[in-house]
Known about the structure:
Layout: H1 2-7, H2 9-22, H3 27-36, H4 54-65, H5 69-86, H6 90-97, E1 104-107, E2 116-118, E3 121-123, E4 156-159
Antiparallel strand pairs: 1-4, 2-3
Helix pairs in contact: 4-5
Amino acid sequence: MLERARALIPPLAERAPAATAARQLPAETIAEYHAAGILRILQPKRFGGLQGRFSLFSRIVEELTYGCASSAWVYAVLAEHQWISAQYPEQAQIDVWGKDPEAVASSSLAPRKTARRVPGGWRLSGRYPFSSGCDYAQGDHRRLSWRKGRPPPHRISAGAARRGRDRR
């Protein structure tokens, strides 16, 4: 996985000026992350991930910074959300990856409302700022399921961001 990340350094460096100017990563970068399999480091094996160590994830982030720090940051946000999604109950994980094992997630930076109980679960709605990389994750909001109690405080928006397809 580290060698795959290192192979991405030259194209990341080449696209860094464009990413900075656009204030968004090019779709090619996200497609390369998917093709290299590095977005699945922390994803559970059950959904096709590697269920790898957080230390490997951290090393990949470090390697990607040699090409483009912004690209490394967005990778870190998206890949870490694979780990966050894996902390949810089983049904919520199925909601995220069941139909699309390559889906990535993004979270709201500061939800300012309280989730309310609705038939079949909880609902949080409103307009919130999202974390870096959300253009490739929030394509279609999915309702996550919690079987008991209140939803966890960390809300996520799962999207079907597939190889090279900008989901703005």
